[in-house]
Amino acid sequence: MTQAYSDPTRADDPHALPNIEVFYMSDQFSAQDDIAFSHIVGYADAGWYWWACFPGCLPDGDPIGPFHTEADALADAQDID
How many helices (H) and strands (E) does the chain have? Predict the structure, then answer.
């Protein structure tokens, strides 16, 4: 998982933590019969996702996605057009 800042200007702030994670969910995993995990994360298709999450903490909401690339997911998380 890639940790990043929803506001990239905070990356240089020594008191700020990354607050989003970007990750890839594969077809192989989504095809597995892991009902508990798929219910928790709520994904449906393979691709790149992101969610709000501080390091060492549980996610703050459901994953957003899927996106075709990691850059697309990160841009969406940072509201970059």
Answer: 3, 4
Residue-wise pLDDT for 25-64, tens only, equals 886 655 555 544 555 555 568 899 999 999 988 998 888 9
Query: Residue ranges per domain, the chain?
Result: 2-6+18-77
Q: Which of 28, 74, 65, 62 is nearest to 47 (CA)?
A: 65
For 57, the enclosing helix (H) or strand (E) is none
The amino acid occupying position 72 is: D
Strands 64-67 and 47-52: antiparallel
The C-alpha atoms of residue 13 and residue 24 are separated, in whole angstroms, by 28
Is the whole-model pTM more than 0.85?
no
